[in-house]
Amino acid sequence: MAEGVRKPYQEQLRPTPAQERELEASLRRCRTLYNTALAQRSTAWQRCRVSLTREEQEAELQAIRADFPAYEAIHSPVLHDVLARLEKTYQAFFRRRERGEKAGFPRFKGSNRSGSVTFKEDGTGARLDHGFLVLSTSGRIAVGWSPPWEGPPKTGTLAQEADGWSVCVSCTQAPLHPLPSTGQETGIDLGLEAFATLTDGARILTPGSYRNAERSRANCQRRLSRRTQGSTRRRNAGCWRAKAHQNVRRQRQDFPHKRALWLVRHYHILSHEDLQVATMVKHHHLAKRMSDAGWSGFLAILSFTAANPGRSVVAVDPAFTSQACSGGGVLAQTGVSVRWHHCPECGTSLHRDHNAAKHSHGRPAAPAGTRGAPCGDDPRTRRAVARAACQRQRYGKKASVRRGGCGTARRDRPAVGA
Fold it and tell me: Nearest 5 degrees, angle CA 52-CA 57-CA 63?
């Protein structure tokens, strides 16, 4: 995090009933504009094989505001942001198509889907005045500010959530708050038995918010399915289900922020494995638990949190961190089910995740573009590379995956962090 970057602040809005109706009307009109622009693009391509651009659709906004007085009251940058979101969705669709990934075509937004609108702090659309959010359409709205924001606000995004309205203010030129150096270093091994294991053996347990809330979420879904379409009871059941999902989402956001802040305050240098989580969850029987743990989100939050106080986060090569002995012994070819590492050469005996955390602390940073390549400076990894080459020569390319008992796949090189 350097000087001049943005820093977001999300707070709860406290609109009056009249202001809430105005916000809902603005959100409904923006949703109508999004669906109309999407239908225009689809029709132009299906009938005339013409691809409409964002600039061509933005040129029609002036005529739309003149023909429909309801859109005249909405600030112009808000409407431009709606078309910018549609363009971003299209670009993401074509990018996934080019990569050969599963790509869903942009779909229409229904009235039952929550949405958001973005205002720009330009003095006319939205501005902050003594703790109040002043909009051109709804007037002064009370905001429950917890900490004062730092830096001039750039944009404000109003979102309708299950428990009310919220605003996310993005401020620029946020000042840094460096902390004194602690002189402590540690390695972090992310796993499923424990969310994280440090070099000294300390373990951070996994909260499992998604798995723990599955029963309550299933009850809310069954309650919704029993209600009659279009009834008030079905609408209330939908609100209960949305609040259940929101509770899980907030729990999953709160846990990594608190753990990352604790690590940043206690350690000056933090090393972790450079995991490719998107690859690990593909065709894996533990994909649901990996997704629930949220390793990628935690590492992103850790890097952002460490940048403000001046801490260092280093991503190291994850190759053979669980199998190579951290005490200088031999490479132990053990499966994921073996949770205790015991080296027959040097006698090192410790937990598998603890051994991997020590390796993460002692390794250099992985160079860019060499993910998954073992570090050639370590003699233990050189022996591991030689052994893997012998296995490929003996068994072929599919030597690393064999079928064990009960039809389960057994890997000679297990997934890191499992």
Answer: 145
Q: pLDDT band for position 7 (50/70/90)?
A: confident
The whole-number pLDDT of residue 105 equals 92
Residue 270 sits in the same domain as residue 137: no
Tokens of 327: 């005490």
Cβ distance 240 to 223 under 8 Å?
A: yes
Q: What residues are paired with 116 via a beta bridge?
A: 159
Collapse the DSSP code of 126 into the 3-class scheme (helix H, G, I; strand E, B; otherwise coil) and give the result: strand
- Beta bridge partners, 336, equal none
Q: Which residue has the tokens 């009659």?
A: 228
Claim to verify: residue 194 and residue 124 sit in the same structural domain: no
Side-chain half-sphere of 141: how many Cα atoms within 13 Å?
Answer: 27
- Calculate the alpha carbon distances from 405 to 336, 409, 412 in Å: 14, 8, 14
The reply to whether 28 and 167 lie within a common domain is: yes
Mean pLDDT of 245-274: 91
Does one domain contain both 158 and 268?
Answer: no
Strand partners, 45: none
Alpha carbons 249 and 331: distance in angstroms, whole number = 40
Question: What percentage of the chain exceeds 70 in pLDDT?
Answer: 83
DSSP one-letter code for 207:
-
Residue 197 contacts residue 351 (beta carbons within 8 Å): yes
Q: Is the pLDDT score of 391 beyond 60?
A: no
**137 within 8 A of 22, measured Cβ to Cβ:** yes
The parent domain of residue 52 ranges over: 7-171
Do 140 and 199 belong to one domain? no
Residue 393's identity, in one-letter code, is Q
Distance separating the N- and C-terminal Cα atoms of the chain: 31
Q: Answer yes or no: do 196 and 317 share one domain.
A: yes
139: left (phi over 0), alpha (psi -120 to 50) or beta: left
Asked if residue 381 and residue 357 are part of one domain, the reply reads: yes
In this prediction, residue 366 carries a pLDDT of 67
Return the structure tokens found at 302.
Answer: 């850790």
